Amino acid sequence: MRIAFLGTPEFALPSLDMLIRAGHALCVFTQPDRPVGRHGTPVPPPVKLMAERHGIPVRQFEKIRSPEGVAALGDFAPELMITAAFGQLLSRENLDIPKYGCVNVHASLLPKYRGAAPIQWAIIGGERVTGVTTMMTELGLDTGDILLFRETEIGPDETAGELFGRLSALGAQVLEETIERLLAGTLARTRQDEALATKCRMIKKEDGRVDFALGARRVHDLVRGTNPWPCAYAHLDGEPVKIWRTRLTDEPSPGAPGLCAVADPKKGLFVDAGDGLVEILELQFPGAKRMEAKAALPGRPLAGRMFT
User: Fold this and answer.
1) Rounded to two decimals, what is the model's pTM?
2) CA dihedral for 266, 267, 272, 278, sign (positive or negative)
3) Where are the alpha helices (DSSP H) in the chain?
4) CA dist list (Å): 278 to 204, 217, 306
5) Residue 308 lies in a domain
6) Using one digit for the tens of pLDDT, what is the confidence trace for 22-64?
7) Cα 308 to Cα 260: distance, rounded to the nearest angstrom
8) 50: helix, coil or strand?
9) CA-CA to 42 of 20 to 30 Å: which in 27, 30, 215, 303?
């Protein structure tokens, strides 16, 4: 099949790899190279790099909705368009080009967590199950008909980065089955239930701010959901300390959220989270490396001090 693949970050790579191995005629559309680092060196999107390694033509547009983007899609004349974490909205002109329309690979169980950061927000929201949905793209944000979905449990200590890798691989499997059913004429469409729909926005750096008064479970979920970016943090003596990993405990709260109740190189670092103690397993002080809390405690008398 002649397929236009629209994707940008690592999440899209397993889906693109599956399409390559399946032998489809492909053209990749992705975001422009972006400046990175102190010197602003342009870095190509991961999808572009994979496509070029396989000799697949790549087109880059700041806005695929532009007349140039629409024309480029039309020139390729795809039978099907696939989006996977593309990062741009499509126009009616874009969607009208392929014969079979546009299929999107979305990292949630729609209609929950429509939007830009469903993996992070699902963990932050305390979900125990998530998954991947393929859907027909329409002009609304993740509002099109559901095609297929597959569920997976979220591990109690699983981070957003770890779940990201699992869902990207799962997405490729669901997409492969979606295309097989499309070609066989057995692909059913199910309208989304708007009453169950929720939306999620892009994650911001300030979303990592920890409020230890919210309870141990919510603190733990925030730490997991913001790992690796933007990373959870709290202030100690006015300086931000990154919190990379935590563990729930059965220890009771002394009634002082943010208090370093135990800070011992052998026992560990335990902080009051309002309804119990949370153990901080890994953290990063300003100007220092990420390290295990037990290894960071010698020379740092934290017992009795407050995270705010």
Assistant:
1) 0.95
2) positive
3) 13-21, 46-53, 67-76, 92-95, 118-124, 160-184, 216-225, 293-296
4) 24, 9, 14
5) no
6) 999 999 999 999 998 888 999 999 999 999 999 999 999 999 9
7) 11
8) helix
9) 27
Distance of CA 17 to the CA centre of its chain: 19
Give CA–CA dist 120/228, Å, rounded.
10
Look up the domain containing 264 and give its range. 206-296
Give CA–CA dist 297/302, Å, rounded.
Answer: 8
Question: Distance (Å, rounded) from C-alpha 32 to C-alpha 61?
Answer: 6
- Tokens encoding 97: 């080009």
Do both 8 and 59 map to the same domain? yes
Domain membership of residue 262 (yes or no) is yes
- The CATH number of the domain where 93 resides is what? 3.40.50.170
Counting the structural domains of the chain, the total is 2
Residue 196 counted as domain residue: yes
